[in-house]
Amino acid sequence: MESRDNKNEEKNRNEKVWCEKFKEYIELKRGCKNPQGYCPYRDRCMLFISLKMKEV
User: Fold this and answer.
1) Predicted TM-score of the model (pTM)
2) Domain map of the chain by residue range?
3) Spatial distance between the Cα atoms of 28 and 17, rounded to a whole number of angstroms
């Protein structure tokens, strides 16, 4: 059971999501390349949404 939890944690750490603005995959743990700049896709961006969820 413990090894499965470790695998899930490792998978989450290495998870990548698509950045529509830069047209590339970005590691979720790294976050947005330019969080202060303008992005027309921000309202549906998984990087930005995950950052906001961590703040709550």
Assistant:
1) 0.64
2) 2-55
3) 6
CA–CA separation, 19 vs 47, rounded Å?
8
Site of tokens 């992005």:
39
**Burial (0-12, 13-18, 19+ Cβ within 10 Å), 50:** middle
| Sequential pLDDT tens for the chain (56 residues) | 556 655 555 555 679 999 999 999 999 988 888 888 999 999 999 988 888 888 77
Which residues touch 12 (CB under 8 Å, ≥6 apart)? 28
- Phi-psi label, residue 42: left if phi above 0, alpha if psi -120 to 50, beta otherwise: alpha
